[in-house]
Specification:
Blueprint lengths: L5 E6 L5 H6 L4 E4 L12 H13 L3 E5 L11 H17 L3 E4 L10 H10 L4 E4 L11 H10 L4 E4 L7 H14 L3 E5 L3 H11 L3 E4 L5
Parallel strand pairs: 1-2, 1-8, 2-3, 3-4, 4-5, 5-6, 6-7, 7-8
Helix pairs in contact: 2-3, 3-4
């Protein structure tokens, strides 16, 4: 049986939504300021994007990040993220993408507990911050994420010179706790060979649509 392949484009602009829907995307992510890694879109954009996506039977995810760059986030930034998650929930967003690490590149479980609680009712994708977790700490990390109801983990495979090897190791870990790997950062042309090698059907990024 052939599994359904899910290709989720990451868009920076509401204006790009119609093109992505026309290209066949059934799941779309929105963020602002992708040049700095992505930040949360405005409430106005979020509301209109939800309306348009749902009118076209498309699932909408939003990136939740208070600024560009990497975590750790301070207490004020975490409060901003909580408020954005509650707003997204009220507006009918389907899923949230976020991550938070400590200065030691381990999960910031205190911050993440607050964010996961604020995301109640939405699917949760842990962001590509996962790539910054040391390989020896990833087992503990995925155990905790799974126990907290996280659904997906994004990874670019960039923690290794061999992306496929890194994705394979990550997928093995995630499969063991019933989490789903979403391979990120590929081009549309790379998806087919990676899907065959990796045995995964979920891809994400800015260049995944033809």
């Amino acid at each position: 049986m052939r599994h359904l392949r899910i290709i989720e484009p990451l868009l920076e602009n509401y204006a790009d939504l119609p093109n992505a829907v026309e290209a066949g995307a059934k799941r779309i992510a929105l963020a602002d300021n992708l040049a700095v890694g992505g930040t949360t879109i405005s409430k106005g954009v979020m509301g209109e994007a939800v309306r348009y996506a749902h009118e076209h039977q498309v699932t909408l995810d939003v990136l939740i990040a208070p600024r560009g760059g990497h975590s750790p986030y301070n207490d004020v930034e975490i409060k901003m993220m909580e408020a954005d998650l509650l707003e997204a929930q009220q507006l009918g967003v389907d899923g949230a993408i976020f991550g938070a690490l400590t200065t030691q590149h381990t999960l910031d479980v205190e911050a993440l507990s607050l964010l996961i609680a604020a995301a109640g009712g939405m699917t949760i994708t842990f962001s590509t911050a996962f790539d910054d977790i040391r390989p020896q700490d990833r087992g503990t990390a995925v155990d905790w994420l799974s126990s907290q109801g996280v659904d997906y983990v994004l990874s670019t495979g960039a923690a290794s010179d061999d992306r496929l090897a890194d994705w394979t190791a990550t997928k093995r870990l995630l499969d063991s706790v019933n989490l789903t790997l979403i391979a990120s950062g590929l081009t549309a042309q790379e998806i087919e060979p990676v899907a065959k090698e990796l045995g995964t059907n979920f891809f994400f990024g800015t260049d995944v649509l033809n």
